[in-house]
Structure formats: C-alpha cells, structure tokens
Amino acid sequence: MACIRSISGLRATLGTDLTPALVARYASAFGTVAPPGPIVVGRDGRPSGLWIEQVVIGALQACGRSVRVAGMVPTPTVQLLTEHSDAAGGIVITASHNPEAWNGLKFLGSDGVFLNAEMNALLWDHVDQDRYDLRSDQQHGNLVQLESAVHDHLERVLKLPAVATAPLASGERVVVDAVNASGSVIIPQLLQQMGYDVIALACDGSGRFPHTPEPLPENLTELARAVVDHGASYGVAVDPDADRLVLIDGSGTPIGEECTVALAAAAVYHAGGQGPAVVNYSTSRMIDAVAHGYDQTIYRSAVGEINVVERMRATGAVIGGEGSGGVIYPACHMGRDSVVALACISSYLRSRNITLRQAVDSLPRLTMIKHKIAVDAGLPLSSILDDVQMQLPPDAIIHRTDGLYASWTDRWVHVRGSNTEPIMRIIVEADRSDTAHDLLNLVQKLLTRHE
Asked: How many CB atoms lie within 10 A of CB 399?
C-alpha cells in the first residue's frame, strides 16, 4: 500500500504499513527531539486512532514525558492548546482528508505549528537511526486528560475581533456534515452559541465516514440535498481533522473550497483588520481581489501549512491560509482552523446582513481546474519541470519555490508533487474558462512527453 512522510507529517495505510512499531518509533523520536515539557495529544476520531493514541502515549511516557490527552478533537484544537500553554509540542493522530484505510501523525512544535523542514529532518534522522531517549529507570511523566479542550477553543474563537462584534443569528438553520469525526462536537456547538439552529447530518463522533471524507462537491451531495430539504441558510462541511471548511449555499450549491479563505479575509478586513494576507501558490486569486479592495498586500508561499505560517510571520500578515479550505487567523492561533473560518465568515454575513450566495457573488468569477496524475516515486520531477518551463510562453513570471508556478495577468498554473499522496498536482486558473482549459492541455501535453 503506502507510507508517506513529508512536511505535513506521517501518513500510512493501516495493516502492513501503519503498525504499532512504526507509530512507537515516530512518537519516541518526537519525545527525544522535542524541547523539555509536556506533549499534547489529540486524535481525529477514526477508530484506529484509539490504539494509536495508546501507543503514542506509552512511547512518550517511556521518554519521560508528561502527556496531556485531548481525546477526539480537531487538529486546530491541539494546535491552539499547544501554542497557548507551556507544552513542548503536540502530536495529532490523523490522516486529514485521506480515506478510512489511512491514519497518521502530525507533529507540532511548542508554538503549535507543524515542524519545519529542519526539525522534520532531525525527527526523521532519529527514526531512521533508531535514536531514542528512553528512560532506563522506567520512570515516566504524568498523564492528564484535557476535559475542557473544546470549551477553551470555542471561548477564544468567540472573542476574536472578526467575530465578537457581530449580531447573533435568529435561529436560522444550518446543516453540518463533520463526517462523524473530530468536528462532530465543536462545529455544532459553535453554531448554536452564535444563535443558529443546527441540523447535525454526520456528527455522531464514531469516525465512520458516511462518504469519501475530502470535502469536495462530489462528496457532499447528501449535505446539499439536506440544506434544501431543511430550508437551511447554508451547509457546513469539514474534513476528518476539521482544519478545512467548505460551505454549501442556501440553494444546495457548493461554493467551492477556494472561496473559504477569500471570504475569511473579507471578514477580517471588514472588521477592521490591517495587514497583508498570505496564501500558497495553488490558491485562487479571489483573495488577491479581496486584499487589494482593502488596500492590503498579498503574498504567496509554497504549499504546506508550515510554509504559509513562516511567510505570514515574515510579512506580519493578519490573515492567511490555503485554497483547500484552510484559514489561518493569527489573532486566534497560527494554524488552519475550520472553527475560526466558520466563525469569521458567518459573522461577516450577519454583520453585512447578506446571504452566503451574495457574499460569493461579490468575488471575481474565475475558472480553476484541479488535475492530478499518478507518478513514479523515482521520477526526476525537477528536470521534467525544467523542460516544461522552457516550453511555456516566454512572458510568464516564474517561481520555482514549490515545483513550477507560472503566472500571467489573466492566468496561472502550478505543477508540483503532492506532500500527502503519490501524485503530481496540476492547478490552473484563468479569467476565462477556455483560457484555463487551454493552459491545462498545454501543460499536460508537455508532461506526457516524459512518460
């Protein structure tokens, strides 16, 4: 099957790949390289997370670590609890949007942010060399259950500048699909505290996905129908570890994951936020229009949450994220957070007294196409992209920070290897549909020359 480690952490298929021995090695290595202090541990709700949690706790305690266990909570909850405490780091047991046959580990530094390339290299070296600081006297740290993790997260979110001043809802209905995973409790509670009547579609916390868990339109047909059937104002979908938010408008139409960060940026700026926005190269230019509309600057980074965060810190950004539906609002914490995104966007709608569809219609109408192809792990991607670059129109502005990013005034393309799957991603966006398709066809043709 597969085992993938990247700047986004470790992901593997259950059974022969994701074994207790593998989990113990990574957890022990993290307990060895992390600075002194307790470690926060949470899981996304997948059934396999229960045994993985036990292995992680045991491995950390064998390294003399005190462990704070949050249980089934979103990844951003673990990030927030780590950042706003004396914790030395955190481990989230999740495979994010990957199907149910997968699980994995995400590693956080003491700042609640995913490990950067240097720290990941150090962690991997300890794993590969079997270098662990295990205590020979078998003494271990304390085990603490964090009973108020969800409450603490919600309390901080509801005090955010882009949220606190908005009027409460008046009992409007909202349908929630949390794929029965870590958003099952916190998302409905957030909406209820903001005055909505919540229809819980897939929020039983069992970790049994009712459909393919990535919140893409083709996977949200039941949610779309439920929005219409219940006469709801909109629908909410999150992935298993609830760091990504996707919305369905009142007509049952998915607005697309790319709209999430653009609308969140509009919410922050509308509430008075001042400063740059940062997104990755694969994110729609819709957010450029929002930032420029408030006379703010937009910057881009390589794909990967840690890359966006580091760029945000370097530029003093007030909002950021990724076009996959992940929003980072530093006023809360430095991680992608669907709870933050939902609170900001819903508050924006109430503050302006507009519908979700009206908010989306205020954004530029662009055509984005996302395509992926399977790749051989040994394929020389860099040299292939060198050749593709040479064949593109010469007036392109090129960035090679993350694969190949080529842009023009009316279109752009980003080609890169995935951090989480054995595939190559091709994303194009243009002002016109035919322009987008022409660009995609050109890049595909150039890539197929190397098959």
From this structure: 16
Q: Which helix (H) or strand (E) holds 421?
A: none
**Whose CA is closest to 56, among 37, 43, 47?**
43
The Cα 291–Cα 9 span in angstroms is: 31
* Residue 50 burial by Cβ neighbours in a 10 Å radius (0-12, 13-18, 19+): middle
Q: State if pTM tops 0.70.
A: yes
Identify residue 6 by its one-letter amino acid code.
Answer: S
pLDDT, one tens digit per residue, over 367-387 is: 999 998 876 655 677 888 998
Classify domain 367-448 at the CATH superfamily level: Alpha-D-phosphohexomutase, C-terminal domain (3.30.310.50)
C-alpha–C-alpha distance, residues 408 and 425, integer Å:
19
Chain centre to alpha carbon of residue 360: 21
At the second CATH level, the architecture of 148-365 is 3-Layer(aba) Sandwich (3.40)
Question: Average of pLDDT values for 3-26?
Answer: 92
- The whole-angstrom separation of Cα 372 and Cα 349 is 34
Tokens of 104: 């994995």
Asked whether the beta carbons of 408 and 438 are under 8 A apart, the reply is: no
CA distance 163 to 155: 11
Q: How high is the pLDDT of residue 130?
A: 93
Rounded distance between C-alpha atoms, residue 9 and residue 48, angstroms: 17
The reply to whether domains 3-147 and 148-365 share a CATH topology is yes
Q: Which two tokens stand for residue 408?
A: 């023009």
Q: For the segment 23-50, what is each residue's pLDDT rounded down to a tens digit?
A: 999 999 999 999 999 999 999 999 999 9
